[in-house]
Each structure stands twice: as structure tokens, then as C-alpha cells.
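SEVERITY: medium
COMPONENT: batch folding queue
REPORTER: lab tech (J.R.)

DESCRIPTION
The queue accepted two submissions in a row. Attaching both inputs and their returned C-alpha cells so the on-call engineer can compare them side by side.

ATTACHMENT 1
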Amino acid sequence: MGAVASFFRNAKTGMDICTLSVDLGRAGWPSAVADAYLDIKSGGGQPRLLTRIDSHNSRQCKEIAKTVELRHLEGIRGNFGVSDTEYMAGTGEPELLDQLIYSNSSAFVKHHQAVFEMMWENGVPAEQKIQEIELGFPPSETRIIRSAAEAAELARGLIESSKREVLIVLASPAVVARNAGDFRFLVERSKERGFKIRILAPIGGEAAAEELEGVEWRPIAGINAGIAIYDGMGALLSQYSKTGPDGDGQVVSSIFTTNRQFVGGMISIFEAMWNESELRQAEGRSRRMAEVAQDILAHDIRNYNQVAMLNAELLEGVINDPQSKELLGSVLGAIRGSTRLIDKTRELGRILSQKEVTLVPFGLNESLVRALSLIRQANPDRELDVTSKISAGNVLADDLVDEVFVNILSNAVKYTDGKQVSLEISLEEQVETESGTPRRYWKLTIADHGKGMANDLKKDDFTRYSPSDKGSGLGLSIVRALVVNRYSGILRFRDRIEGDLTKGTAVEVWLPKAESHGQTCASAAA
């Protein structure tokens, strides 16, 4: 007993103890541990105790946990203590201290410090274990399963005992085909015992879902693990070496646990994924219905417009009264405006609905030349006076990039009075660092001499329908959808002459400089 007391007194910064028992009423090691721990704690040390907590000692452990850090670990087979400089272990029962192993070898002590740390990491905090005992929960179990056959056998046993619901997350739809017998067994037991089955699997598992009668199925993005939760009481996680479109991943290992907190957390994750998948499906259905309705509506309205346009043009040829001609001209203008609005709405919808786009190097100069040519053809009664200071510059974009400049130039013509439309176009390199990572851009500025843009509109994100006295506002919505959402660029508006909005507007289009290759990216608008 003196050797044990001396061992504890020598501890300076802390003491780690692993013991079979903490029964303070018994003589020997438990009593010595309790007395020495009080001395270490009072001296400012940090004692840690690892033991098995059960219904017989939970009250004592609850008291001990008030003064030392205590954890529960199943399967403890011996007693040892390790401090910063010494190691001691008993060779027999806790109450027999006549045979001890002692060492102050630095290598030996460090080895057992590492052993204790591994055991400590696998331990359950005393508060959690004691609460489970007090609430009458069955003891939890967590173990690693290396054999796929053992994991399959365990899964069958869990299915046999399931009564309410089995939740499954598949790493690949091919898992169903590879384990057809196991899934048939699952469905058969579900019918016999009346429990529900819900499965989350990567997109492409619809065919497999049809084979599993009575199973609720939702698509998700691919993951590299499989999860099965049985009646909310146990969870089996399988880690795969790899998974691909063909689902050829092999199970590396599995983890089974009945830990209530862990299983509850996995259920929460499953439900969140289930709800998200349901929302995505509903969103997809709504989008398809909206696209169909838009196409039908646009088609029919264009047809009506064409009939109205044809009749109005016929009337224009036979009416000589100036006032009637003027009114008829207004009608024709409204019909043409309606048709343009339909076209722009369809174009904006198409841009926003695309999820993935392929971006390649596009020449800014060539795109501007094409856009200016289109604007001149569309406005034969206007003269474009363009001062251009641009050189060759390639940006990462696609064939819709012309639409950016067509819409900006159309606005410049629309909001400039008189026959002549003056434009200044310039190009310069810029580096943006606000995101934290420097990005290189070509900044193209188009400045007009029109009526200018109100300050509140300069800050408008143009993500919604923003009409004005001369148009629908959809042109700038298209510009923003392309520059910001599709090309990951920057769009800014300012007065051509700072502080005087009546002297025209300058539109800055920042587009990422092109690399030597194209890339496919997800559209931020999708």
C-alpha cells in the first residue's frame, strides 16, 4: 500500500488510471486510488479515471465525476496507472496489492501513456453513461466489422428484429443489383412484419426502385458510404473503396453502433436529405410545368400578334386619315413591343434554367463587332458614333455573350434622344481580390450620352421584372443573368460623368480572362 501511495504522491501534473472497479467500500486498489486522487486534485493536478460504469457503481461514479474526469469503457481487463514520469500496474484482483509492476523508464511510461490515450478516446463520458443507466436504456455497443459477410449477417439479424422502419442510404444504385437476395429478404420481411422502408440513392436508381415493391425511394447526389438505420435503435455504416457511375465500389469496413446519440444524429441527417430530395423533385416538376406553360403561352400570343400585325399592316395601306394612321402606328408599335417582350422572356427563362454550361475562350472584340452590327440593322434611322479603345481580349464565355452587348447597346439607343447615338467603349485588365483569391478579369466599359440612370436603379440587381417608361427592364435582367450567374463575372453601373446622371451611363462588364482550355461549370442561376 505504501508503494501505491508513493506512486500517487510523485505525480506532479496529473495521473491517468484505468481500473476494473471504483467501489470505494472495498479495500486495496480502489480505496488507494480514491485517497490519492483527492491529493492530486488538491495539488492542482488533472486526474483522469477510466473504468466500467454499471448499475451497481453508477451512484459512486456520479459522486467521483464531480471531482475528476471520468469515462466509461467496456471490456477493461486490468488495473494500471500512468503519470508524467511513472507507471504502475496490479497483477491480480483490485483488492490484492501484494504484486505490482512498476517502471520509471521514459520509453515504457510514454508507451503506456499512448495506450491510455487510445482507450480514453474510445471511452464514453460518465455523465452520458450514468444518464443511460438512470433512464433504463440498454447498454450501447460500437464495433468495427472488417468482414463483408459478417456485416451482411448482422444486417439480416437487424432486419429480422425490425418492427417500425428501416432507413437506407445507398452509395450506388448498383448496390441493389449486387445484393439482390438481401434486398428481396428486406422487402419480404417488411411485408410480413409491417415495417416501412425508405431509401435514398444516387440518381439513376429508378429502375432498381421499381423492383423493390412498396419501398419509398428518393434520389440524392452520390456518396462514398452506405448507411442503414434499424428502428432508430442501431446503425450500420459501410465505407466503400470507391464508387462510380457503374457502382463498382467494394466495402472496406463497416461500423455498427447502438449509441443513441449517434443513431439519433444519423436519423436527423437522413431526414434532412430526404426532405431536400423531396423539395428538389417538387422544384423540378414545377420548373417543367412552368416551361411547358411558358412555351404554350408564348406560342399562342405570338400567333395572335402575327394575326393582329398582318391586319394592322393591311389597314395601314388603305387608311389615309393622318390621325387614324397615327393611332394605327401606336397599335403596330405595341404589337411589336409585345413580341419582343415574349422573345426576351423566353431567352431569360432559357438562360436561368440551364444548370451546366460549357465555357470556352471568346474574343471580346469580335463579339462587340457583331453586336454593333445587329444594333445598326435594328435601328436604321439612328447613327451610332462609336469611339472604341479596345484590343484583343479573350474571356471565358459561350455563344450567348453577344446578348450581353446587344442588350446594353439597345438600352443606350433607347435612352438617347436625337438621331445620333454617341458611345465610348474601352477595355482594360483588372484583378479583383475582394473574394480573398485574386481573379483576373477583362473590364469592358460601354458609356453612352443618354438620359442616364437613377441612382436607385444602379444598385438594382435586375433579378426581377423592372419596367420603366420605355421598356420592360428584361434586357438588363438578361445581362445580369449572363454576366453574373452564367459567367461568374461582375456588373456595375455608374454615371458617365461622376455626380451628373443626366450626362449618360457607363456600364462596366467584368468577365473572367480565358485560360487555354474550356471548362464546364454549374450555373449559379440554376
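ATTACHMENT 2
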Amino acid sequence: MSLPRCALLQDRKPRLLKCNTHAQLAFPPVAGRQPGDLFKTACSSDIQPEPHGGLRELFLRAVEMPSWLSSCTAITKGLAMLNATFPIVTDLVRDAAHPLTGVISDYDPLLEFIGDARFVLLGEASHGTHEFYRQRAQITKRLIQEKGFTAVAVEADWPDAYRVNRYVRGHGADTDAVEALAGFKRFPAWMWRNADVLDFIGWLRFHNDPLPAGANKTGFYGLDLYSLHASIEAVLNYLDKVDPEGAQRARHRYACFEHFGEDPQEYGYAAGLGLSHTCESEVISQLIDLRRRAAEYARRDGCVAADDFFYAEQNARLVKNAEHYYRTMFRGRISSWNFRDTHMAETLDSLVEHFALQKHGAKVVVWAHNSHLGDARATQMGRAGEWNVGQLVRQKYGRDCVLVGFTTHTGTVTAASNWGGPAERKRVRPAMPGSYESLFHAAAIPAFLLALPRGAHVANGLSEPMLERAIGVIYLPESELASHYFHASISDQFDAVIHFDQTRAVEPLERTGEWDVGEPAETFPSGV
């Protein structure tokens, strides 16, 4: 589709769209402005420099607009319509919102809404916000205590998370939660080595310890596939113990990766472009070989052996999938994204099947970014061909799952400025006009839970596509629209949303000089 050339300019005033038409627009309320304030859009077929700073990214080139905004005339009409309906939808949100005040009963309506669902997916709008981590933990504790959930599956690598799993279930050599989290060394380490996760891991061990032998203790599992080399090492360590000859065969197969060093992207680049032999057949053969001997290995020591084999098998499956992921990642973002989220959904299914074999019912809480857990079909990414964990879980389990998103208006966040860079504490810009976050800010409730049941007035009011913000491990406020906003229908994307208007950065266990610049830390873990 041919898109008009529109630029978004920003200074200290609200944003202005430069399009090929003249019009006056009444924008939704923003800081220091009232509904009805008029701003002019300037006509230009070429991009003109902004007088107060660098020119922002092209608005429509960076952010795909819905079809009804495929021309600047339609943009003018769409924004005018949004301005007209903004106060109505804000009132719907304000009336339906359940304020969160810090009392123990804050999430009573959410637990009632969840009912008997076996899968609760708790998102986050960034990978570095204290409130998201802390409140996910609070909800998860109640799900474990009151609804019998026995697994927490997170957007983390399988072997690193499984070390935590051993600790919280009373196994392994780690003596405290800090040691148990030591496996998280890969960038961005703060995602899991932070004060809020440390608190939760300490609580989970405290919850599990009094349970009798043989009880179904709550575990902690990783869903992601980036741990190619760590997973290879885990498979070899397992086979060294149970099948030394099998370990030799595995070493021979996995030696295929030795030519590319520790960075799997080096392998992906060379193999993906046909510059070297691929390791595809080797990793598939190793997984088949391991599974062929499953019964033999599992008979050796009862339930413990079954757990150990499951851990090794998932690592071997991860190696196979990671090989494919890195080999194909240079072919396009959509295919690699879809493969990664399919892997995460399949890992979740493998957990469910493993629990069923052990005669344990599976009730799982999932922690991951909103972009993974909100139904992709309700976003512009879905229209471009992407799917994600939330969509796949919904399609498979239907009403047996609940998807919960988190949002914020402004505050601070822990993030890097580039891939592999140090953790920084960054100021989060106030949400852009025309976004769900700005609408929630206009409701003037500091923190609230918003259930979005099908057919409810508030769900209908929030069904029209609007901008939504997503901050990952990198935050680039200077190009925020292009880097961090996308279009979504939030009431189709999630079953409920939790909004915190003002948030602060999560505290890494290893704080850098870059992170310490700015406001002082307010808390540190209380229970380890």
C-alpha cells in the first residue's frame, strides 16, 4: 500500500502532523491543554526541519496505520473522530476501572474474573518497570495460594530458569535466591536478576519448603530459545551421568558449532547465507537419539529421573529450535518472530504434558512482554502476518486462559540504549496523544484494574484501533513513535488491563554507574 509522506514533529508543544492537507484538529487532553484546543497541520509534500530539535521519524513509514488512515485526509478525519469520542471512552474507563490502592483485596475482582482458567498470562509494557514485576508477583502468589497454580513460566532461557526451579523446589546446590539467579548472565541480565524477582524467588522457596515429600511444589520454568550453548552443555552433563557413550555421540554432533565461537549469530549468519555447512541434521539426530532412549533413562531413578530426562530433552529440543532460529533470523523479522513464539508456546505445552504424566494437574502463570502475551490478531503485527504466544494459547485453550496486559503513562524504566549495552535508568516520556496510555491517564486514577469482558460497554468503547506503547530491553525516547508504538485494539488483545500512571525503574542486582545516575533507589529486596 502506498503511504502518504507525513512526519511527526515534537517540541514542548503537543505533536503536530505534517500532511498534504490543511486542517485544524482538536487533540485529546494532554498535559497543560484542555479538550478543544486547536492545532494546525501544515501542508507539505517534503519533510521540513523542526525548529526545536531533530526531525522525528516518518510517522506512517515507521508505524503502519490502519486502512482507514491510509491518506492524510483520512488521518484528519480519524483524529477528529478520536477527539470527539475521547471523553466518552474516558468516562467508560473511569466508571469500569477498579482502583488499586495497595490493600490485599486489590485483586479480588481479577481472581473472580479468572475463575477456573488454567492459564493466566501476565504481561508487561516494558522489561524494566518495578510495578509490573511486583504486581505480577502479587497476583501470582494469590493464584498459587488460592487457586492451586503450580508453575510459573517466564520469558527466559530454559537452563537458567531451571536452576531457579531446582532451588525453589528444594533441589540443587544453591544456598539462596541470589545464587539461584546467577545463571542469568546473558544480556539483559536485569530482566531476571532484579530486586523484585529476587523477592519472588525467596517467597516461592518459603512457600514450597513446608510442603510434604511428594507434594506438587510450584516450579519456575523458562520458555525462550536463546541459550544454544548453555543448552548443549546441559544435554552433555546429563548424558555424562546416565550414558557416557551417548555423551560421546552428542559431543561429536554438537562439535558442528565449534567453528563459530560463542555467539550463535555468527553461526546464523554463515549458515543462513550458505557460507558454511549447517548443523541442522546433527541437532535433529541428537534429539531423536535422546528420545529413543527415554524409557531406558527414565527407569533409572523413578520420578527424579523423569524430571532430569525432561530437563535434558527440553534442552535438546531447544538446541534444535535455536539452530533453526539463528539460521533463519536473517531472512526476515516476521518468520523469526513467529518461530520464537511458536517455540515458547510449544514449551508451555510440553510442561502441561509433563505434569499430566506425573498425575499433576497443570495450572500455569506465564510472565512475558505484552507483545508476546496479547493476542497478535488484535494488533498491526498480526495484520502483517505475525502471531504470538497469546494468540496460540487462546486458539488452543479458549476460555481456559486469561490474558492480562500492563500499561503506564510515564515514570522511569531500566533499559539499554543499544543491544548489549549497560542497564540505564531512563525517563519514560508521557504517553502520546491518541494512545491507550494517554486515554488511561485522562481517567485520572493513579492505578487501576480494568476487566474487558466481551460485550461490555468499556470493551466495545476500547475496540477501535489506537496507539499502544511497547518498551523492550532498549528504550529510544528520541524516536519513540517509530521505535515503541504500534496500533492495537486493546479489548481484543487482552481480557483485562492493569494500568499504573506513574512507574519507576526495576532495580538490577548489579547496578551500573549509568543506572545510578538520577533519582536514588527506593527499595531493595526484603525476602530472599
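NOTES FROM REPORTER
The chain is about 45% helix and 15% strand.
No errors were logged for either attachment.
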